[in-house]
TrEMBL record:
Signal peptide: none annotated. This is Dihydrodipicolinate synthase/N-acetylneuraminate lyase. GO terms for molecular function: 4-hydroxy-tetrahydrodipicolinate synthase activity. The keyword Flavoprotein does not apply. InterPro entries: Aldolase_TIM (IPR013785), DapA-like (IPR002220).
Length: 307
């Protein structure tokens, strides 16, 4: 079962703009050392739209090889058409990955029959996979309503999970879980873990945040599951300012924090992202310093961070 913290891994690039496989190894090892329950690649947070087909395929194989069966790998397979999604799913299967996360393209629309046909074509073409139906908010996603998702899922046993990240996600999670078919194993939260406590209280089986504070998210998950809700809320409260900043700068924030934690040596990105100025960076450093006791992999790394 997919559950717990399953971060979406970023794509590391060299200073010349190419992919950096060695840096990807370090990201995977950092995630595993943080105690994650699975990893996701590629996803939106991986700058997937900026990757060539060969880069995407080679990095997925690299992730799978590095994970070496220690936790599940979920491969992103979203695409503008069912045919392309099928190709991505087959590529994932060839790499040894059976969980594929797929968002229906906006061109399919929001009609339940049309979206169901999209997922049905994928399930028929690649019957060995399990599909995580990704429901992202506009403008990136289609903002499918819970009744539409349930109509899609009920006749497609290949869809075993839903990643629900529309806003607000909480009521949608409640509605989906209330009437889910038996083959739907769970709903996973999105939104960068900015709403993780609400999602967990409503029955979400896990979350897919970015990876830069995976150790804190794992500690939060474990506290919640053990019944220590007060500790989970404390961890959430102490890291939420970072997640709020991350919402603005996305992968640029993730890569900056990973450089500060010694995982990456640069923060090169291909995606068009809002630039971070010196004030932004000093603010991130200040919040990282406050959170440093929680960063169990390198708690001493921020001793000299900005005040």
């Amino acid at each position: 079962m997919l559950q717990g913290i399953l971060p979406v891994l970023p794509t590391p690039f060299s200073t010349t703009g190419g992919i950096d496989p060695d840096a990807m190894d370090r990201i995977v090892e950092f995630a595993l050392a943080s105690g994650v329950d699975g990893v996701v690649f590629p996803g939106f947070a991986s700058e997937v739209d900026e990757l060539r087909a060969d880069e995407r395929a080679s990095l997925l194989r690299r992730v799978v090889e590095r994970v070496d069966g220690r936790v599940p790998v979920v491969a992103g397979a979203s695409a503008p058409s069912a045919e392309e999604a099928i190709a991505h799913a087959r590529e994932a299967l060839a790499a040894g990955v059976r969980f594929t996360m797929i968002q229906a393209p906006k061109s399919v629309g929001v009609d339940a029959a049309a979206v169901a046909a999209f997922y049905g074509a994928i399930a028929a073409a690649v019957p060995e996979i399990q599909i995580v139906l990704q429901n992202a908010p506009a403008p990136r996603g289609s903002d499918l309503k819970p009744d539409v998702i349930l109509a899609i899922v009920k006749d497609n046993p290949a869809i075993t999970y839903v990643k629900e990240e529309t806003l607000p996600a909480g009521p949608a999670i409640t509605a989906i879980l209330k009437d889910r078919p038996a083959h739907l194993k769970g709903v996973i939260g999105g939104g960068g873990a900015r709403y993780i406590i609400d999602e967990y209280r409503r029955g979400a089986c896990g979350a897919m945040p970015a990876v830069e504070i995976a150790d804190v998210h794992v500690a939060l998950d474990r506290a919640f599951r053990s019944g220590d809700i007060a500790k989970a809320r404390d961890l959430y409260m102490r890291t939420l300012p970072l997640l709020v900043i991350q919402a603005n700068f996305r992968m640029a924030f993730t890569k900056y924090v990973l450089t500060r934690r010694g995982i990456l040596s640069n923060r090169v990105a291909r995606a068009k992202l809002p630039p971070m100025d010196d004030m932004d960076l000093s603010e991130i450093d200040a919040w990282l310093k406050l959170a440093s006791p929680l960063l169990t992999n390198d708690a001493a790394a921020f001793a000299g961070a900005a005040e």
